[in-house]
Amino acid sequence: VSGYITDRAGQRLQNYQGYLFPTVFDKRSNYRTLANDSDSFIADFSVWDAIIFRGKTKVVDGQFSFSFNVPANINYRFGRGRMSFYADDGINDAHGHFQDFIIGGSYTSAAIDDNGPEIRLFLNDTTFVSGGTTNQNPVLLALLRDSSGINITGRIGHDMVAFLNNKTGEPIILNDFFKNNLDDFTQGRIVYPLGNLPAGVNTLTLRAWDTHNNPTQSTIEFYVSHSAILALENLLNYPNPFTQETFFRFSHNMPFTDLDTRIQIFDMSGKLVQEIRTTINSPGFASTPVRWDGKDLQGRLLGNGVYIYRLLVTTPEGHQSTKSQRLVVIR
Question: Mean pLDDT across the chain, nearest whole number?
Fold first, then answer.
């Protein structure tokens, strides 16, 4: 699909640089009112509500182009579809629609595709690892990829759906939360806020379909620690052993929070040889890396050997948690 942005007189805006957000609809769906009120009556009406593609593409010099695969589970009846457009360049926006096309039937020569989408699940950001710790209000981040495109129609039971703790009777429908990547119908992401999760071990399973109606599901496990309790996991330094420098990292359950962070390094006799102090505020559950150059409190390079380090993290409310590990210096 190709097109261009115009002014009200129909002239192409050659200086328009921005993004276009197209939404493609199947044919109108027909409905009938229920006439629930005593003074109402039954009326037939139709709406464009069956979305088959929603994307994002660049507008360059007022022109745009995008492509997508039509899902196999459209309404095969032939009829007029609709494309709705919204564009924005940071200053001016634009909108429009196009209905001069017919959608329906099937393409018998389509390439064979028997594989469902690839699904990768995270909480808050892509540094989260299954089995990690989170608070009770994380954000689900799902990255999906399929060479045929992702199915968002929701027809014939093909919803993009998630289940918490295998509660199949309480599905979370995610079709409206899926967004394709820029200029790429083969991959996109879901960002969905979760809330008030129970403390302890939880699982989330996501099921999605491609445009050939092949399903895939993926599951992530995580431990919920309520925010009042600071939880630290996965403390490590890399590289380890190291020669010139190393970086400390850990995971926690308090994203978007200023965490007073101290790393104390001791030799094997228990003497404090270095203390690093910083404030960490990360959008996810993985800390930003803390660098150490291998020098002691007097600025001298430490000798070869094994050292113990202790992490001490304090929240703005005064809650504390500690964790310890070993590192090795090799010069």
Answer: 92
